Amino acid sequence: MFTHVSVGVNVACALSTAGSIACWGYDVYGDRDGVPTSGSFTDVVVGTGTSCALATDGHVQCWGSIATPPSAELFADLGGGGGGTACGLMVSGEVECWGYDENYDGYFTVPSGRFTSVASWGVSACGVRVDGRVDCWGGYNVRGGIDYRYWPALVDVGVPSSVMVGDSVSFQFGTDLLGDGSVVVSDGDLPPGLSLSADGSLSGTASTPGTYRFEVEARSTGLVSDFAWVEMEVIAPAGVTGGQVLHPWDGPLDGALALFYGPGDTFWAPTAAAETDADGLFDGVVLPYGSYTVLLVGPAGSDVVPTVLTGFVVEAPFVGTTPWVMAEGHSLSGTVTGAGGAPVVGATVSVFDRAVSMMPAASVVTEADGSFTVPAVPAGDYQVVVKAPAGSGHATTWAGDTTVRGDATVLTLTGDRSGVDVSMVQAASVTGSVEGPAGAVEGAVVRLFATGSWAPAATAVSGPDGSFAVTELAPGSYRVRIDGPDGSGLAGQWFDGDPSGWGAAVFELAGGDSVAVAVTLTP
To answer: For 238-288, how does the pLDDT look when each residue is reduced to its tens digit (9 = 90+)?
Structure first.
């Protein structure tokens, strides 16, 4: 069986699946009978009076009117043979031609450079270079190959590597006698705002910062002649600013922060930040052109409060500022006591803006005498809540001596405020045990729900002996829900076994009350 056949003027040869060669026809120059009888081959070409084959080891062997090529280089492909000459593509990408005269009888000189393929016949040969161009040499009919004077080519790319947002771009890609061709973007993306016309003119106004990479090709009737990859960075124009941060009455602030926020910035990721020195100064802040909100934060322990400045505009290379004065903060102080008026030590006192429910404006911890001072709070309306340390026996209490925020005292702060005293409410507790068919249940989840609410007011998990305890519970009415640990197969239930919870037992707990429950869970 055969895989390839080549036909010449007088002889034909075929390559077998085993790599051997068989030739037949009219033998004039030994191009039939001189076929090699040993070795393994991957290709065979037949010309006029000569035949050549490419061995599996990369060497070329010829028979007939021309001999084996003079080079010892390895070959990757054969380009044909005949009329006394043959050509091959070496592994290096260079082309070698050989024939009946070591000087090729003056017919041609092989061009230097690397090729991807080669073909020859008689005294003519052509090759495709690695850049896609075709070169020919040898016979008068093909010598010189394609006339590149009529093939469009990019001459000197030289496009600017960077432009500023808002800059007008006008650049002409040089082309060598474009003829009927055109210049196009064949891959990648132009920077937004720029366009490329068919005559190679790149123009427009860059609008979006970023790094863009695109391929430009010169084409003629669908045939690509030349191309170039272009990388262009579009830079947002920026200005440099600095300034000074002052205390409301005490001069420069050392260690204050100036945070600059542009559109789309998050609180934790401003566009830029700077810290003031001993003179309250900062400089060298680089900001892209645009409008910013500036947040000033005082140094730790200062009596100023975070100050927001809006409408800071950067639209020139250098932006000067007048000194920025931070807003005055007001102190808020008081004492936290528990049962019998005893001071509560280590309680956490948090100040909430009346309009903010999740994050306190400030928090401090009570001293040994139960006192506290919040040093710097902006003017506004606030509510104060105190959470006692674990095991104190006190429920979380709001100023106004209540456990309900809606009933808490609202403090309007326009200056320093003292006498914000909180008498903590005595807590209630619920304790108990959880058992199953095999005894004590560890990891059961116990939830307490205040009457009228389906959000848990408190949660506990049973220990190895099945016991649990919920302490620091605000006085009120509660239902108890118990669920077995995940994967236990034990069904959850409300304390008295009611499946829905609507009819569950309700415990009315006053400060200091403690109730015990025992629950048995079943599959």
So the answer is: 999 999 999 999 999 999 999 999 999 999 999 999 999 999 999 999 999
**Strand 238-247 to strand 318-319: parallel, antiparallel, or no bridges (unpaired)?**
parallel
Evaluate whether the domain defined by 162-235 bears CATH number 2.60.40.10. Answer: yes
d(CA 117, CA 265): 56
Rounded mean pLDDT of the chain? 86
**Within this chain, domains 162-235 and 428-520 share the same CATH topology:** yes
Q: Where are the beta strands (DSSP E) in 338-403?
A: 348-353, 362-365, 371-377, 380-387, 397-398
Say what the pTM is: 0.51
Copy the structure tokens of residue 110: 């092989």
Does residue 102 have a pLDDT over 60?
A: no
| Residue 434 to residue 446: CA distance in whole angstroms | 9
CB 225, CB 269: distance < 8 Å:
no
φ, ψ dihedrals at 243, nearest 5° = 180, -170
Task: Identify the CA nearest to 405 among candidates 337, 357, 471, 347.
Answer: 357
Tens-digit pLDDT profile for residues 430-487: 999 999 999 999 999 999 999 888 889 999 999 999 999 999 899 999 999 999 999 9
Domain borders along the chain are 2-146, 162-235, 245-325, 330-423, 428-520
**Cα separation, 186 vs 224, whole angstroms:** 10
Half-sphere exposure of 181 (CA within 13 A, CB side): 24
CATH classification (class only), 330-423: mainly beta
Q: What is the mean pLDDT of residues 301-313?
A: 91
CATH number given to 245-325: 2.60.40
Q: Which residues make beta-bridge pairs with 373?
A: 333
CA distance 13 to 35: 9
Selection from 154, 158, 87 nearest residue 127 by Cα = 87
